[in-house]
Amino acid sequence: MPRPIRKRCVSSPPLMEGFKPFGIPSSELQHVVLLIEEFESIKLCDYSGLRQEEAAIRMDISRPTFTRIYENARKKVAEAFVEGKALIIEGGNFRSDEGWYRCRRCRHVIKSRETVTECDSCHSDQIKQLNIEDKMMKIALPTSGNFVDDHFGHCEMFTVFSIDENNDVVGSEIVPAAEGCGCKSGIATVLKEKGVKVMLAGNMGEGAVNVLGNNGIKVVRGCHGELRSVLTAWLGGEVTDSGHGCAGHHGEDGHGHQCHNH
Q: What is the pTM of this model?
């Protein structure tokens, strides 16, 4: 069994819930979700000026894990800036020593070890706790262009959608495919760390299905078509696992090999 992921220590909540670009109509605005621990990594290195070794100690994680979180964070910020997307700061795998609360009325942020029921700024009782268990569902799809890639092990990238409790898409991000064939590439661990629970795929061998399953990711095979159409169909209960793996494919040397062995 894989080891449980160590929760990242975060000292305080972001003051804001996110950022929106000027000049992009709301109807066309797409989102990028920046996890709380990713926000913390940028705050520690780029704002506070800590070295990565020092920041890793603050977050109680290893240096390689911090570097991965930090690089993902900067890529997301760059994507939002360059492509004109909104940046939503929420979710993740983190812990804190205090409760975090935001007043829904005046947006004031409160830290307290006691349960907060009233805003200490405007005295409103409309309080939302921020650092409760993340209830968003993360769904990954192997991607080629804007479509589901039929071959999980050799796709260009993975698109990860964040789904709220109302089954609405509240964000998405691109995860580059790791080098190697499918289950040997380490992508299952990367997706697990991002909180992915479901993989909607085209063809996939049993080896990859097992590796993803061991990382807590349910696989639904037999998905084909445009990404959001497939996602909407699955959310609507119209898609189930076909149970069919890859029959086989050929490597660069021209010799075939069976996907279920990879």
A: 0.55
